[in-house]
Amino acid sequence: MSFLTRDLVCQQAVELVTDYLEGKLSRRQKRRFEVHLRSCPNCRAYLEQIRRTIEALGRVEPETLAPETRDDLIDLFRRFRAEEP
Amino acid sequence: VTWFSPGARATVTGLTRPGPSGCYRYARSVESGDQAVIQQLLSGDEDAFTQLVERYHTRLIRFAMTFVTGRAAAEDVVQETWAAVVAGLSRFEGRSSLQTWIFQICANRARTHSGREYRTVLVPLDEPAVESSRFDRNGAWSSPPEPWPSVDDRLEADALAPLVRTAIEHLPEVQRQVVTLRDIEGLTARETCDVLSISEANQRVILHRGRARVRTQIERGLGEALP
Known about the structure:
Structural class of chain A: mainly alpha
Oligomer: heterodimer
Number of strands of chain B: 2
Number of helices of chain B: 10
């Protein structure tokens, strides 16, 4: 069995998760990764948790803008525009 | 609010009408949308500027805080960012999106403020996504991931939010910057590289480490919260 066709172990598979999600694995690497996932519920759980992590990060909302801050910045915009030649 | 989903924000640029929550909806558009906003700003359109501020200000504060220590310093950075944006409007060439340009200015101001040198971005040392102690000597899981609360259970799923916030705050600086831009702000890989002046390969390695750390923190937090 050559290095390239050898089965992945879990410890290697978890290091490929981001490249997999970013679509950056070669066709062969992608196949090896997916073959491993099919037979490994633990790595499937890990991948799912990384997906949940990304979703949870996407739900972190910024604070709301204070009206005074907004007004201060509009003042700044006005001053700059007034100074434009 | 759909525009917080990372995918939906990736290519978003043009401003349209305010949404129900006072946020401004962003229509998917090509760079011409950015150019239209620039033209409005150059003609002194205060509404266009207000929309820009409402869209970006608190996000810029959050981003600035990944560089500098303390709220006051972040506010200074963002104040300077707005001044530089307004002063530089006529020089915006549309080589990047307006969003990328604004975050780029913010990153540059923040770096100057932090007083540290950023000539090169440090690639994280070889840090595994999962501690090696969780695998047996053949590389198979010996301590596999515990299941998380189901997505369908809203209350339990909401328990993730505070864990995520804490996890981000504890990320090493560059990981926090990349994770913030990619997963919180929804920038593309390309945009993130442009804002932080890093290579795509570097960006991916940093993102990988950062996401893995956040997952580990969530796992630990859930382990403490659940019996």
